[in-house]
Write the structure tokens for this entry.
Amino acid sequence: MPASILLLALSPVRIVKSALPVIALLVLLVTISLQVFAEWISPEPVPVEPFLADAIPQSLPGWEVTNLDLGPTESVTEQSFRILNLDDFVYREYRRGATAFTVYVAYWGPGKMPIRLVNQHTPDRCWTENGWSCSDRRFHVRKSVQGQDLHPAQWGIYEISDFSSESYFWHIVDDQPYWFGGDRLNTRTSLTSVLLDFRNIAINRNPDQFFVRIVSQQSLDAIWDEPGFATVMKDLADLCLASRSKVD
């Protein structure tokens, strides 16, 4: 094949490659513009009275129950609260001998927080960007408690140094499980997530949101049917982890 013909055949590929930086820049600019515009037209949040403290057991027979802060100090807690822009949260540890698990529930009322920003605080994003690694991962896990089906969960094992934690977690938006990342680690905000946020705001649909995370150093499946654990999970099902239409 003559060199001129070969060069001509390759030229479209070279053009596409040379245009990639420009395309990437345009996508970035569109993403930033949509985020700014979405924030600008976002509706005013509706004030919410705290209610989560009573949503899950404050005491369990045979278990030691401790309320935890978002951070190791009050200043870190206040900073975390501002960053997350929470309406309400509860972070509680349940311990019985060597068995222990923590429950973290956060709530944002309608219009309080863009959906994509809440979704960025999952272990996939928040933990892995702070030194943790994910050694195992399952998506859309079906679980039930006391015969009641839960919304599909995300599951993972996360490790740092010699410390390992297993976690089930859910992001519930308007009574439905929500997941921007698809079946992969959600480590970056995608253009799709920004467009979904923009669509929700444009049609005046910025609903309430829950984020629920259960963590233990033991196997959560091994303690799933323990009466104390099942009691906590049943309360969470009634709160947001099962369809409210079925609960009601």
